[in-house]
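Hello,

Following up on my earlier ticket. Below are the two sequence lines again, exactly as submitted.
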Amino acid sequence: GAVVSQHPSRVICKSGTSVKIECRSLDFQATTMFWYRQFPKQSLMLMATSNEGSKATYEQGVEKDKFLINHASLTLSTLTVTSAHPEDSSFYICSARDRGRTTGELFFGEGSRLTVL
Amino acid sequence: QKEVEQNSGPLSVPEGAIASLNCTYSDRVSQSFFWYRQYSGKSPELIMSIYSNGDKEDGRFTAQLNKASQYVSLLIRDSQPSDSATYLCAVKVGAGGTSYGKLTFGQGTILTVHP
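Thanks for your patience. The regenerated structure is below:
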C-alpha cells in the first residue's frame, strides 16, 4: 500500500518551454501533497504544499508563477515548470500523505529528472 | 541554526558492523520523526518512524528518540553493502497553517558499507 507514482521520470526540454510533472497516489487518497526539489549532493528542499481543492502554499523564494501547482483531485497533483531555463534543471520529487493514517509519514514518488538545454 | 541537522559524513563501516546515524532538531514541539534511505538517483524510501521517547526496533534497524535532548538516531546492525546510501532524518513540523504536517529534512548522512 501507499504507492505514489510520478511521471515522467526523465524529461529533456529546450529553454523557454514548459514541462508538466504528474504525481498520483495509487491506493490511497491524499488531501495534501508536497513538492520537493533536489540538486546534486544536496538534501530535499520543499518547494510547495499542494492542498486538494485550494491554492498551493509556496515556500519562501519559490516563484508561484514559475512553478504552477494544481491539485484537482484527492489522487492527483501536477507541477508545471513554466518557461524553463537551465538553472531549473533538477530532480523534482513529489510526496503524499495518506489521509487515512494519523502517523504523518510521507510517501514519495519516483522523482522526475528535468534537464533544460 | 538549521532546523534539522545531521553529520553529512561520509560514514564508512565494515560489513557486519553497526552503523550509527545521528540527528538533532531545533523545534521542541516536533512530534514525529522519520528516517528515510535514498539511493543515488532515486527518491527517498521510508525505513523507520518513531513518535515517543525510547527505542523502536524493526529488523536490523533501531530508531532512538530523546525529546529532552532533541536527538534522534538510527542504528543499523549487521551492516551490508546494500545499506550504502544517504540516510535522511525528517521531522514533522507542528500543526497549523496551510503547510500542516510538512516534513523538514536534514542534509543527509552518506553511509558506505565496505566488504
